[in-house]
Design goal:
mainly beta; 5-stranded antiparallel β-sheet; about 0% helix
Length: about 260
């Protein structure tokens, strides 16, 4: 858990304590430090090994003067967390809690899908649940991750709070044709390449003739074999293929088989 806080170094603060509670009433000090007046806000403290199953975490700050007297206690802050589950192949349900960090409340929640970029996919002002429909974007990969950002409701400078990253693991799909017709009038029949879903990673496709010679190789899953070798169509017949994919999470997919090349 990362705890960020601002301190006005022109005040009489001499030291501070970070305190932790699991019930909202009893706190224990987990970190103390003396302030140096030449230090700059904001300060950051990392609470390692903070997570335990089914345990609430509430933090607060205590400021002390030079006589070690408490002169200020911050409002308590609980963790802002999110979770995502798979409702179907194309729909994910993201939900989150919003602890009372700010007296003014929250003006909006921004939902980010953080696989390939950090562009927001939705903004909501009320709900704490959102359904993400990824549609036919099967190139999204074998893991889809999200993060929620809350924005303070205020007319002044608005603070933000961000949840943990939460992910949905997808089951990959890989379908391969057993024949191609390079001179077909139907585009999908002209090229040998997989139909796939939820696959990202290192990809290799190799095509071999009956003597074991590699006559085609591609490292782009969208770039298939059109039935040619050295810019000429191959003879009709059976050719061997080998596909190897290393998914982003390290899983290896390997497929081998035969592809028939047919001409009208």
């Amino acid at each position: 858990v990362l705890i960020d806080f601002d301190i006005d170094t022109t005040t009489s603060f001499a030291s501070y304590a970070i305190q932790l509670s699991t019930n909202g009433s009893t706190y224990k000090t987990i970190h103390t430090i003396s302030l140096q007046k030449n230090e700059l806000s904001p300060y950051r403290f990392t609470h390692f090994q903070a997570f335990n199953a089914d345990t609430t975490k509430i933090y607060r700050m205590i400021a002390y003067n030079n006589c070690n007297e408490v002169i200020l206690t911050s409002p308590p802050v609980s963790l802002f967390t999110a979770q995502a589950i798979e409702a179907s192949d194309t729909k994910h349900v993201i939900s989150w809690n919003m602890p009372p960090i700010w007296d003014q409340g929250v003006s909006e929640f921004t939902i980010y899908r953080i696989n390939n970029n950090t562009e927001p996919i939705a903004v909501t002002s009320q709900a704490n649940t959102y359904i993400d429909d990824i549609g036919t974007d099967y190139t999204i990969g074998s893991q889809v991750c999200y993060r929620i950002e809350a924005t303070q409701k205020t007319t002044n400078f608005a603070h933000t709070a961000t949840t943990n990253k939460t992910c949905v693991n997808k089951t990959y799909r890989l379908l391969l044709p057993n024949a191609i017709r390079p001179n077909s009038s139907i585009e999908e029949n002209k090229t040998f390449k997989p139909t796939f879903a939820f696959i990202t990673g290192d990809y290799t496709l190799q095509i071999f003739d009956r003597f074991g010679n590699c006559i085609f190789e591609s490292n782009d899953i969208e770039n298939g074999w059109d039935g040619t070798y050295k810019n000429k169509f191959v003879y009709p017949g059976s050719y061997n293929y080998k596909i190897r994919i290393k998914l982003a999470q390290g899983q290896i997919i390997e497929r081998t088989g035969n592809i028939a090349v047919i001409f009208d």
